[in-house]
Amino acid sequence: MRTRRTATAVAAAALLAATVLVTGCGGDGEPEVPEETTGTLEQIAGKAACEPDVQTDAEELRRAKCATPDGSYVLVTFATDRGQREWINEAKDYGGSYLVGRKWTVAGDARTVARVRERLGGRIETAEPHASHTAGHH
Predict the structure, then answer these.
(1) Please, where are the H alpha helices in the chain?
(2) How far apart are the first and last CA of the chain?
(3) I want to staple 36 with a disulfide (CB 3.0 to 4.6 A). Which of 11, 20, 92, 121 is the partner?
(4) Angle made by CA atoms 89, 61, 26, in degrees to the nearest 5
(5) Residue 9: left (phi > 0), alpha (psi -120 to 50), or beta?
(6) What's the pLDDT tens digit per position in 2-51?
């Protein structure tokens, strides 16, 4: 159904417009990374020491804001691998850092994403924003 994909795209665009404004530079240290976590949004948030503020609770994805000592970020869980990959591909148009696990993603600045990785495992993906999306946002 097209509305589900449109809702996902709108949620990704809104999230990443905000993420671009807070993206910063991270450190160069490579700490030990635990085995990638799995579970529901609440279970993953608990492992990240986050009290999730759920913003989107839909069948295809759940999205929550997290404010922790590691920093502020957004945690998104997905119903399908394909939905996750489509969201990440669209999100990368806006730049930023993403911690990617099995059916979950953390979006935030590079330093925060690196710190959250120490708790959740996963792999970091980064992207430079496309000029057309960031004009006037500095």
Answers:
(1) 2-22, 41-47, 81-91, 110-120, 131-134
(2) 36
(3) 121
(4) 50
(5) alpha
(6) 455 545 444 444 444 333 333 333 445 556 789 999 999 999 999 999 99
The whole model's pTM is what? 0.73
E-assigned strand segments in 58-103: 61-68, 71-78, 96-101
C-alpha 105: how far from its chain's center? 4
Look up residue 133 and give its two tokens: 């999306």
Cβ(25)–Cβ(110) under 8 Å?
A: yes
C-alpha–C-alpha distance, residues 51 and 65, integer Å: 9
φ/ψ (deg, to 5) at 41: -55, -45
Contact predicate 126/98, CB 8 Å: yes
Q: Among all chains, which residue has been given the structure tokens 């993906």?
A: 125
- Given a contact cutoff of 8 angstroms between Cβ atoms, the answer to whether 95 and 129 are in contact is yes
The answer to whether 50 touches 75, Cβ cutoff 8 Å, is yes
Rounded to whole angstroms, how far apart are CA atoms 8 and 13? Answer: 9
Residue type (1 letter), 57: D
